[in-house]
Design brief:
- The protein is built from 26 helices and 20 strands.
- A three-stranded antiparallel β-sheet has the order 4-6-5, with no helix packed on it. A three-stranded antiparallel β-sheet has the order 19-18-20, with helices on one face.
- Strand 16 and strand 17 form a beta hairpin.
- Helix 10 crosses helix 15 and helix 15 runs antiparallel to helix 16.
- It is globular and about 80 Å long.
């Protein structure tokens, strides 16, 4: 194999200091104007690593900023702050309830994403062009994978990932395929999707799977490319809002051929937009199916754990949750370990700048130098989801959602269902937690070591199940659905799976999807709660309009029942009460540890052990002391909770018994209805841009975000969908 190549690449230094305005400016130097030459495989890999670093550093795409939009804006996750019509971010998350023309296009969070993704694309284009100009390129891309063909494939995968992110957030975007080209004009997103898939299919046979030739899941390997083909295809074949104010024939496929569409909603004359999907969607999915099948059939070193390998630790904690194990592996104490189930994982250095859990993990009120530091907890789980969507036996509920946070002084406390306080309110996401790190950094809340699992094997399984179901192959779809679903139940089997699938089929009536298909989408909601997936799943499946209506109906019923009866009850038997009873206890003396794991069978009545996966770090004093900070000693560090899933009337005999034991009656569900702002925020303003009347009239929702003014200038494009031009 010839390891010596010439690679023309824009200088890392030049790209590193260029602003996104400079990079998108049509008058700025093109990437080929500042090229330099590498002459070895190692140099090529270094250039590729620079592209990866740009993606990693683009934190708004995977952790904050623009990433908050899908987390907050679905029928699973809602706002922690009081809804405000003047808040541009909240309007975006709610699908523009006051109209798209009211949006300040320069005031949305995560505006840097657009330019930063094109910077990464520029690096990839320079690498791709340089490879393709090699005299021996054809021989490199023939036969079995080799180191250079793999590097080339990774560059293609990285570029395709950037275009995938651009199109799902913005719709139609500029398409730059070669070094030296400017990011000007709009291209049909369907053409971009087609072209990316076509290129991925070219490189896929010439890449290494995870575990081959030293390749790991922290680079875009062959398994990831197979999964990415499926992921892009689902969006390419899915529902979206497209513009009707562009020239006739704008929407074409990758071959430049005009597309026809199956529209679910009618064109909105104000936004000049219509919600539908390309008519050849079945062909798009059929073509992607073999790649998803190949990914699950030959996963390389990627594992999907059906049981928890941790067992019981020396302190007696029971680790009985393979789902939680995946996230536990991300709470690393070194810079090398990856989660076994990750197909592609974005790595962060140990205590080196990751935004998880500081922004989207388990809540904490601590500031910097806290135990733990502040955890804003932006991805609040809606109460009716926590109580009603999860089967009480589903191990994902407690591993994903938590009703307690930490106070920054090494103690646990019950969160509130009130609004407007960072780190204090709402059902918080439990997947990333300072307390679960062996030695978390205590200096700043933006400095953890938690990686971002960009694609996991459960996602590939469920994408495969979805494609099968969409193509009418429900039997095969159920096989892969069951593989993900069942591992979260005692003994690895949910005896009620068939009845659950049937119930999922009855939740939506506006589309002709089968019950199995709807169950796959519901399973994705449970599997990826708090990870920014649900919003996009609703959009691309066509379930979005009805989901908005159902969400208001369900949450309104919850609030009305709490007002009228003191509790709301769900079909799974859970009740959300107006009040619960809590007290602080010395968990270390009682159990030998402070940080709890899974609830042992038969201990569901233990107020400390149930719900599971909470508590606090076993030794905050040791952590603080090792960093040279002041320490403190607490005994009553854990919260015992009674009445969390059952209604107990205040003043009743049981309530008095608990109070005699030291438990304190504490507001819970009552805070949801304490004033009109709370009612409005929790019941009416989630997905407020799609009203019941809009649903009945089949009004097309606007599902994309606008370009900001500087990007319009630099790229010579216009905003559609009724957004402003400046």
């Amino acid at each position: 194999m010839n390891k010596f190549i010439n690679i023309a690449l824009v200088s890392a230094l030049a790209l590193g200091v260029a602003s996104c305005e400079d990079y998108l400016d049509t008058n700025s130097p093109s990437v080929s104007d500042r090229e330099f030459v590498f002459s070895s495989e190692e140099s090529a890999r270094g250039a590729l690593n620079y592209g990866y670093e740009l993606l990693r550093a683009n934190r708004n795409i995977h952790s904050v900023g623009i990433f908050w939009s899908p987390i907050w804006g679905s029928d699973m996750e809602g706002l922690q702050d009081s809804y405000q019509d003047g808040d541009a971010g909240q309007l975006e998350k709610g699908f523009y309830p006051t109209g798209t023309s009211a949006i300040n296009i320069n005031g949305l969070q995560g505006w840097e994403v657009f330019g930063d993704l094109y910077k990464t694309i520029g690096v990839c284009n320079a690498l791709i062009d340089s490879f393709e100009s090699l005299e021996n390129f054809k021989s490199l891309m023939s036969g079995e994978p080799n180191a250079l063909s793999d590097i080339y494939g990774q560059a293609v995968a990285l570029r395709s990932t950037c275009y995938f992110e651009l199109c799902r957030y913005y719709g139609d975007v500029p398409f730059v395929e070669h070094a030296g080209e400017s990011a000007e004009g709009l291209k049909s997103r369907f053409a971009i999707y087609d072209l990316c898939i076509s290129k991925l299919r070219e490189v896929e046979p010439h890449m290494y799977r995870a575990g081959e030739n030293g390749v790991r899941a922290d680079v875009m390997n062959r398994n990831y490319v197979q999964g990415l083909i499926g992921r892009i295809a689902l969006y390419n074949a899915g529902y979206c809002t497209r513009r009707t104010d562009l020239e006739a024939g704008f929407y074409v496929n990758g071959k430049g051929e005009g597309l026809s569409f199956d529209d679910l909603c009618v064109e909105d004359p104000q936004t000049k937009a219509v919600y539908g999907r390309r008519a050849d969607w079945r062909t798009v999915l059929q073509d992607a199916l073999p790649y998803l099948e190949a990914c699950v059939q030959q996963p390389g070193s990627i594992q999907f754990h059906l049981t928890d390998p941790r067992g019981t630790d020396a302190q007696g904690r029971l680790f009985n949750n393979p789902y939680q194990y995946v996230f536990n592996q991300m709470h690393k104490d070194n810079s090398l370990d990856l989660a076994d189930e990750s197909v592609y994982e974005i790595p962060f250095m140990f205590n080196g700048g990751s935004d998880r859990p500081g922004y989207i993990g388990r809540a904490s009120t601590g500031g910097n130098y806290g135990a733990p530091c502040v955890g804003c907890g932006q991805n609040r789980i809606q109460p009716h989801v926590y109580y009603g969507w999860f089967d009480p036996k589903d191990a994902r509920r407690d591993a994903s959602c938590c009703v307690t946070g930490a106070d920054g002084n090494g103690r646990e406390f019950l969160l509130s269902l009130d609004i407007s306080n960072w780190g204090k309110v709402g059902v918080t996401c439990n997947k990333w937690d300072w307390n679960r790190m062996k030695k978390p950094d205590t200096a700043t809340y933006g400095n953890s070591a938690i990686n971002v699992s960009y694609m996991r094997m459960s996602d590939v399984y469920l994408m495969l199940a979805e494609v099968y179901a969409a193509l009418g192959q429900d039997g095969q779809a159920k096989t892969w659905l069951a593989r993900v679903h069942n591992r979260n139940f005692p003994g690895g089997v949910d005896a009620g799976l068939d009845s659950w699938i049937a119930a999922c089929g009855a939740e939506f009536s506006s589309t002709d999807w089968s019950a199995t298909y709807k169950a796959v989408i519901k399973e994705r909601a449970l599997e990826f709660v708090g990870e920014g997936v649900r919003r996009f799943d609703l959009i691309r499946t066509g379930l979005l309009p009805e989901a908005a209506v159902n969400n208001r109906r369900d949450m309104t019923k919850v609030l009305e029942d709490i007002r009228d009866k003191g509790y709301a009850e769900f079909e799974n038997g859970n009740q959300i009460p107006a009040y619960v009873w809590v007290k602080n206890v010395d968990s270390r003396t009682l159990y030998g540890y402070r940080l709890t794991a899974g609830t042992p069978a038969g201990q569901e009545s233990d107020p400390v052990m149930y719900p599971g996966w909470r508590g606090v770090h076993d030794d905050w004093d040791g952590v603080l002391g090792s960093f040279g900070y002041a320490t403190f000693n607490h005994n009553a560090t854990n919260v015992a909770i009674k009445g969390l899933f059952e209604y107990v009337a205040p003043g009743s005999a049981k309530a008095q018994e608990w109070e005699a034991e030291g438990y304190v009656q504490t507001p819970w569900g009552i805070d949801l209805i304490k004033d009109s702002k709370n009612w409005d925020t929790h019941a009416y303003k989630v997905l407020a841009g799609i009203t019941d009347a809009d649903y009945q009239a089949r009004k097309s929702p606007v599902t994309v975000r606008p370009f900001r003014y500087q990007d319009l200038l630099n790229s010579g494009i216009t905003n559609g969908y009724g957004f402003r031009q400046e």
